[in-house]
Amino acid sequence: MSANPDTAVPLVAVRGLVKRYPGVVALSGADVDVRAGSILGLVGKNGAGKSTLIKVLAGVVQPDEGEVRVEGELVDPHGAHQSAQLGFAFVHQELADVPNLTVAENVQLGLGYPKRLGFVRQRELRRRTRVILDRLGADLDPGAPLGALSIAQRRLVMIARGLAADARVLVLDEPTASLTDEEIGHLHDVLRTLRDEGVAVVYVSHRLDEIFSLTDQVAVMRDGATVHASPTAALTPPGLIALITGNVEAVEERPRRPSPTGTPEVLRVEHMTAPGIVEDASFAVRGGEILGIAGLMGAGRTELVRLIYGADRPASGTVSMHGTEVRIRGPRDAMAAGIVLLPEDRRNQGAVMDFSIRKNITLPALSQFRVAKPVPLPHNGRERDAAELLVKQLSIKAASVDFPVRHLSGGNQQKVVLAKWLQAGADVFIFDEPTHGVDVEGKQEVYDLMATLADEGKGVVFISSEFTELVGACNRVLVMREGRLVGELEGDAITDGALVERCYATT
Amino acid sequence: MPEEMLSPAAATVVGTPEGPREPVAAEPGARAHRLNGLLARYGLLAAFVLTVVVFSIARPDTFPTMENLKSILTAASPPLIIAAGLTVVLVMQDFDLSFGAMIGLASGAAVALAVTFGWSWEAAMLAALGFGLVAGLVNGYLVAVAGGSSFIVTLAMGTVLTGIEYAITSQNTIYSGVSQDYVDIASGTILGLSNMIWIAAVLAAGIWLLLDRTEIGRFMYAIGGNPEAARLSGIRVRTLRTIGFVIVGLSAAVVGILITSQSGSYTPNSGVSYLLPAFAAAFLGSAVFRPGEFNLPGTVVGVLFLGVIQTGLTMLDLQTYIINLVQGGILVTAVLVSRLGQRSA
């Protein structure tokens, strides 16, 4: 309820935060003011540093440099408990609640339940919860088990928990993901009410419409630093997009890949659906194409390609190869049909970390290396020859191919996973974030590799959250948002700005 | 949080879905780890040699003799067979706690079906193997296909198998009427060594070949290392896990047949005593040769180590309770030592 939020001392002042991880700088000078009675929109691309900033406030991550002040006082929260004592409350994208406890038990969790003779006074607990829920205008039964509630209702319960802890700063990380328009409207009303009561709200969102309709202030982060802070009213949607992307094509100019003409279609996907995750996705890839799939985290890109590959089972949808429908009940069938997938998460899905480079590379096509064709015994020497060739081609840095993958750097691990699928061979290669954790040089090698495959007539599908690399590598890009394919760009229409616009749902 | 797997070397996964990975804490204890690694890799072999030396000094007339070696190997044969089978499921990070009961069921079926029900001993023996096969298939289905926890599923299966054993044998001990041909299976000798030793050696060699030399074995280790990566690489994860349980079931059946054949009699529920030694041998074995990884040569060393301790302590004419205390103590120590190696591996 501060009468003049622009001049009041900020409730929370973040100055010059720097956080380095080995090989990555997550924050490189973040400055943010959070004012009481104001809603701050925090925006930026994936990896811009928003999450790390929030983790600092939550006491999960300690910064290497910089300071955080609450009401002018220097603070250094270590752990969730200290952060809560300072008045911070967080509603994370992934719900951190206890589904088998009741609403009331969740709201008061960790705050000390009212007790008599050591027993929890359930009635009093529910009464207190009722008061908080009324404040939020949430018509929920405090005695209901949380697991029975919708995601939107559970987010409200998390907000109620912040209020129960007397939070002065409420931080919401993409709270409207997977909510309906009506639920979003209600959530926004609740946040406006809280703001008017004097709570400071930090609102992280990729949806620019929300930023403009809800927030009072905007802070834009890019590459770990705050690049802009102003009242929301001072910005226009195109201006904000320019701030988010940086509007600089700093990446090495690669000649635009021309769309192939006259090559046959290799892969066709029709009506691929997994309810609530991927809705009715249809597309085709021709030989010689590098087809990008753009989208934000959680848009359903990874889920879509996993459905195609048979890693998950779709509710409906068909996959055709070379014009013939194929039945894919699992990765084996997909591989047999000529499709391979390089999964996004190499640690958990790509590599067997305790296996050597050689054993990882030959795993999907081990039968190529038998001592004799009918004898299912792998010939180590032949395996080694093939592995050494790929290690050389992809310039994987390791003492020998018998070196365990666990001890390689992240970029080299990723290359081993690449090598493994190149060795297996296929007609369609699906790369899901293949440059994650790969350095600049390595990225170029990955792009070259994809181009080589396409030039050989293979179909390449390339998922990336970095729009610039899609712009540089693809001849066609599909845009996915909230489980649907919502746009397609081809040739010169593929630009950073066009991708951002379509991914961020500005309309 | 990913579900923690029961395993000697459960991989710890560091990192968050978004953003950079949390830095792995710099390891000031890296040198201590290397030392532990050495201790673990060679510790068991050293302990093995040391035990042999100590017993040979303590009982120079009886311990270091050919006769004793033969008897240790003979006694170690049934545990070796079951421990070798168990190694296959452990490689894939599964557990089987039902094999003790399966041994009991197989011994009951092989003896009682012949003696009480009048089947030919061959038919009874095949029935025992059939039980092992079916028990393995059911375990495999419940764990690998239906997704049950192998720990609980096989524990429950053990109770079921014991129930079937009692239904067949009415819990009666059988000590007469066993066919001489059946007794000859285990009691016969080839080249001066008991048939049991040969059978155990052949089976262990077969499982070694399977795990360390065949495609299937490579796939089994891949499943143990990263089941999701294995599945995405087109490996038949469910089938191979089921095969693992079938191998344990069949191994247990073979053990049940051999111990009744050796003694020419049947005692109810005699298999449970194999549970601890088999697991202990496999875990001890995961500390030698390839630390942090279950492996058949290691399992063989583990079985022999336990066999030497058992025989040696018995020869020292110690009272039973002391044998139990010492045996348990050595086991716990050895397993702890091997854990050090697995952590540093």
List keywords for this structure.
heterodimer, A: 507 residues, alpha/beta, Rossmann fold, 2 domains, six-stranded mixed beta sheet, 17 helices, 24 strands, disordered N terminus, B: 345 residues, mainly alpha, ABC transporter involved in vitamin B12 uptake, BtuC, two-stranded antiparallel sheet, 13 helices, 2 strands, 71% helix, globular
How many domains make up the coordinates of chain B?
Answer: 1
**What oligomeric assembly is this protein in?**
heterodimer
Q: Hey, roughly how much beta strand do the residues of chain A contain?
A: 25-35%
Gyration radius from CA atoms of chain A, angstroms: 26 Å
Commentary on this structure:
The complex is a heterodimer of chains A (507) and B (345). Helix content of chain A is 33%, strand content 26%. Chain A is α/β, with parallel strands linked by helices and 507 residues long. In chain A, the strands form 6 sheets. A 6-stranded mixed beta sheet of chain A has the order 6-9-10-3-11-12, sandwiched between helices. Chain A has a 6-stranded mixed beta sheet with strand order 18-21-22-15-23-24, with helices on both faces. A 4-stranded antiparallel beta sheet of chain A has the order 2-1-4-5, covered by helices on one side. In chain A, strand 9, helix 6 and strand 10 form a beta-alpha-beta unit. The longest helix of chain A is centred in the middle third of the chain and has 16 residues. Chain B has 13 helices and 2 strands; from the N terminus they run ααααααββααααααα. The two termini of chain B are 23 Å apart. Chain B is 71% helix and 1% strand. In chain B, strands 1-2 form a two-stranded antiparallel sheet. In chain B, helix 2 packs across helix 12. Classes of the chains: A alpha/beta (507), B mainly alpha (345). At the A-B interface, helix 10, helix 11 and strand 20 of A face helix 8 and helix 9 of B.
